[in-house]
Write a sequence for this structure.
């Protein structure tokens, strides 16, 4: 699928719908959330959001702190419930109802990278990347070795660690640790990768590496990334969704969002007038 | 504010800082002082009677000097060992339960009972083991002693395990779950290894406490002056020997009691080191 036609279809869909309503039907999408409401106890974090995650594209989710963007992301692979949250509505992965499936199966297909790098501290670099395979029962040493190398290469970390695979994952720098976590996520071969502010704790050089990585990854993976950094959203994403107070305010292709947003609140946020 | 008054404030602040550091160091010394005093005194009183005979010979009958406590050393090791085999797995698994699924009234009850149990005098635990093991078996036995020691180990291990698991950052659990690893495997393969160091501390405390108990063994294993490794028979232990020999009117026995105390301290010390080596993390990471 050509990017241009996607953008056209997205824009066309936008024009046919009321402002703020996402063009969900016309974009080929890997995942879609329908009428999603997320709660923490009685507090509602997400209000009636319907949003598609376009196939093999990068969707950036932006919005001020506490707007529900992380909660939305975590509802996609059922991590929301791990934090004790509840929800109503539907999340579909290739048409499969995520909340009607085994969470273990869902999470193998929809991986996640967290804000703070969280390598397993008792494991070596190699073991960290191999963890997903091993813990899911893979015993084949050749396959594990190949997968670890492939994943570390995909995460642009291989050259830096290939001679120290037996060292602790914690011995790496913050940026390397985050790329290690990305490699760990890629090793289980997910179809969708969710990233929750993956570069917000990193310096500009490490951030640039992660961003390049995201750009490369979208050839094979569907990516949704939550970010506070507007420039980052503009740089890495094909589509951008703006959340505010738990609601999806607007979603469009990134260029349109940053040049001609339909909603005043989107424009105010993007231009830094609040948030 | 003038520079002069600043200097005065500075001096006062530095004095307070030095004073508090001094106080901390002093308190730390007071904490370790009793250990050195006990160890030094036991060493000076007991070392004279510690020789090869002490480790390989049986106690001599009253009136004869010499002899050893080979049966008591083996008995103590066996009862603490069997007690550990019974008590430690129960304690650790119960601790895992409390940490993972214990956020309900049942968990709260288990937690509370466990705290109460750890505060119960050990002699009462001995009586309980007497009632539930000795009476049905109709005789004292090493097994009954092991059960009493196991009951003493359980609450310490349960609560330490729970607390150490709860200390493991939630982000590690999320990372594992997000890889599609089932919850139970996450606990066993990701969470427990990180908590191992802390759990080891709890296990060692429990073992050391059990190794030093006398009262619960008096009602259960009773003691034995002869060689016996049968768990079905009364069994000798260092602590019961210390108790018997220290109140005996024979100087030779009193000296042997000191020797037994010294040997017991050394055994606990060695077990500590051994456990630390075995459970040492490859990267020296974990909770303490």
């Amino acid at each position: 699928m050509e990017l241009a036609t996607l953008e056209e279809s997205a824009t066309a869909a936008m024009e046919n719908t009321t402002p703020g309503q996402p063009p969900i039907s016309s974009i080929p999408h890997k995942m879609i959330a329908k009428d999603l409401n997320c709660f923490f106890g009685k507090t509602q974090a997400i209000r009636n959001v319907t949003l598609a995650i376009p196939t093999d594209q990068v969707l950036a989710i932006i919005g001020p702190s506490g707007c529900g963007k992380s909660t939305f992301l975590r509802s996609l692979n059922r991590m929301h419930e791990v934090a004790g949250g509840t929800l109503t509505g539907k999340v579909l992965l290739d048409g499969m109802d995520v909340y009607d499936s085994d969470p273990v199966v869902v999470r193998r297909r929809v991986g996640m990278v967290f804000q703070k790098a969280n390598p397993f501290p008792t494991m070596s670099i190699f073991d960290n990347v191999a963890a997903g395979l091993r813990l899911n029962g893979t015993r084949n040493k050749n396959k594990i070795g190949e997968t670890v190398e492939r994943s570390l290469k995909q995460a642009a970390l291989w050259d830096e660690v290939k001679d120290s695979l037996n060292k602790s994952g914690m011995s790496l720098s913050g940026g390397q640790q985050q790329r290690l976590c990305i490699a760990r996520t890629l090793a289980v071969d997910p179809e969708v990768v969710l990233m929750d502010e993956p570069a917000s704790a990193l310096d500009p050089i490490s951030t640039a590496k992660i961003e390049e990585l995201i750009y490369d990854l979208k050839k094979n993976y569907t990516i949704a990334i939550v970010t506070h950094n507007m420039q980052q959203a503009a740089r890495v994403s094909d589509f951008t969704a703006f959340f505010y107070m738990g609601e999806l305010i607007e979603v469009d292709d990134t260029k349109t969002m940053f040049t001609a947003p339909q909603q005043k609140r989107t424009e105010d946020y993007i231009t830094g007038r609040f948030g | 504010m003038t520079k002069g008054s600043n200097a005065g404030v500075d001096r006062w602040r530095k004095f307070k800082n030095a004073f508090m550091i001094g106080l901390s160091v002093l308190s730390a010394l007071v904490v370790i002082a009793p250990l050195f005093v006990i160890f030094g005194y036991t060493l000076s009183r007991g070392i004279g009677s510690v020789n090869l005979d002490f480790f390989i010979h049986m106690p001599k009958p009253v009136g004869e000097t010499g002899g050893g406590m080979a049966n008591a050393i083996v008995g103590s090791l066996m009862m603490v060992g069997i007690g550990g085999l019974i008590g430690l797995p129960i304690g650790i698994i119960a601790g895992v339960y409390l940490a993972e699924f214990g956020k309900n009234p049942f968990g709260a009850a288990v937690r509370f009972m466990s705290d109460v149990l750890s505060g119960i005098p050990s002699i009462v635990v001995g009586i309980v083991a007497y009632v539930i093991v000795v009476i049905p078996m109709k005789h004292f036995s090493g097994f009954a002693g092991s059960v009493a020691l196991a009951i003493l180990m359980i609450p310490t291990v349960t609560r330490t395990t729970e607390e150490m698991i709860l200390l493991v950052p939630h982000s590690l659990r999320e990372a594992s779950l997000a890889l599609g690893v089932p919850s139970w495997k996450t606990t066993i393969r990701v969470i427990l290894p990180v908590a191992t160091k802390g759990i080891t501390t709890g296990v060692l405390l429990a073992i050391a406490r059990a190794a030093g108990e006398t009262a619960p063994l008096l009602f259960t294993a009773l003691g034995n002056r002869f060689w016996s490794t049968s768990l079905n028979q009364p069994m000798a232990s260092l602590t019961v020997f210390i108790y018997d020999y220290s109140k005996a009117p024979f100087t030779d026995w009193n000296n042997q009691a000191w020797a037994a105390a010294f040997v017991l301290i050394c055994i606990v010390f060695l077990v500590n080191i051994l456990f630390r080596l075995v459970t040492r993390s490859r990267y020296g990471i974990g909770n303490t």
Chain B is about 75% helix and 0% strand. The mean pLDDT of chain B is 90.
